[in-house]
């Protein structure tokens, strides 16, 4: 899971992520799944076209979520910066 913070907004965003061969792919509300660079560009373009503002991702806290039986474990992996 990615917990996203933006440079110029108090509003954040959370999205699901899958890691394949060391590379992250984001599975957000709208298909298709995207690699990090594509997601970063598309988020900025989408906000500019639909809301007239540009939101740039400043950093992302990465969490690992695992289910084991009826239990769910959440672990903070680290922080990615733009």
How many domains, in number, for the residues? 1
List low-pLDDT spans.
none
What fraction of the residues are assigned to beta strands by DSSP?
over 45%
Taking Cα atoms only, what radius of gyration do you get, to the nearest Å? 14 Å
Main sheet: strands, sense, barrel? 6 strands, antiparallel
Mean pLDDT equals: 86
Query: What global shape is seen?
Result: globular
Structural class: alpha+beta
Helical run tally: 1
Q: Span between N and C termini? A: 17 Å
The arrangement of helices and strands along the chain is EEEEHEE
The residue fraction in helices comes out at: 10-25%
Seen as an oligomer or otherwise, the chain set is single chain
Number of strands: 6
The neighbouring-strand order within the major sheet is 4-3-2-1-5-6
Describe this structure in words.
The chain has 82 residues and is of the alpha+beta class. It has one domain (2-81). 20% of the residues lie in helices and 57% in strands. It is built from one helix and six strands. It has one helix at 36-51, and strands at 2-6, 9-20, 23-27, 34-35, 57-68, 71-81. The protein has a six-stranded antiparallel β-sheet, with helices on one face. The protein is globular.
């Amino acid at each position: 899971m990615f917990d996203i913070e933006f440079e110029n907004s108090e509003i954040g965003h959370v999205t699901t992520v899958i890691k394949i061969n060391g590379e992250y792919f984001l599975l957000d509300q709208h298909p298709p799944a995207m690699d990090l660079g594509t997601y970063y560009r598309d988020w900025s373009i989408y906000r500019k076209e639909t809301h007239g503002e540009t939101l740039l991702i400043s950093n992302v806290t990465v969490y690992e979520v695992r289910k084991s039986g009826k239990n769910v474990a959440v672990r903070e992996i680290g922080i990615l910066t733009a």
